[in-house]
Amino acid sequence: MPTPDTPTKSVFDIHALEGIYLLYWKMEDCTEAIDIPIPLSKKERHMLVCLDQPRRMGDLARELLALPSTVTAMADTLEAKGLLFRERDPNDRRAWLLSLTEQGHDMRKVMASKASDLFRDISGLSDDELDQFAKIALKIRSRIMETGMPKGPQT
């Protein structure tokens, strides 16, 4: 039986949730400050990061929690900046795939490297702790993907 000074499981759960929220908010605040050669909005940066491989626009809309029209507008902007291109999905000629150009891949690498440094700085985790955290976060991500993405704000 826990004593008044012994934290209960629910207290640890609350601390974990608070840590996740604070980490998210801090990263969200700081990612816009990541210096990149071409100015991009927060959503455009997120879309670029999600394009680790060619993706269908509808799938991106679901992952970004955005309306398809928003993804189309962002794709237009990123295409005009030379960071991505569209091509028909060979498995479904009605659908479009978005792929990064060479410049887009280079920009994504720069952003990923700087975000990684930022995450290490903000979290203060050691390399071993980061490995553990990454495994846990991947497990959480897989679970959420299996059970359904959140609806989120449709923008």
From TrEMBL:
It comes from Pelagimonas varians. GO terms for biological process: response to stress. GO terms for molecular function: DNA-binding transcription factor activity. It comes from the Bacteria. Pfam families: MarR. The gene is mprA. InterPro entries: HTH_MarR-typ (IPR000835), MarR/SlyA-like (IPR039422), WH-like_DNA-bd_sf (IPR036388), WH_DNA-bd_sf (IPR036390). This is Transcriptional repressor MprA. The lineage of its organism: Bacteria, Pseudomonadati, Pseudomonadota, Alphaproteobacteria, Rhodobacterales. Residues 13-142 form the HTH marR-type domain.
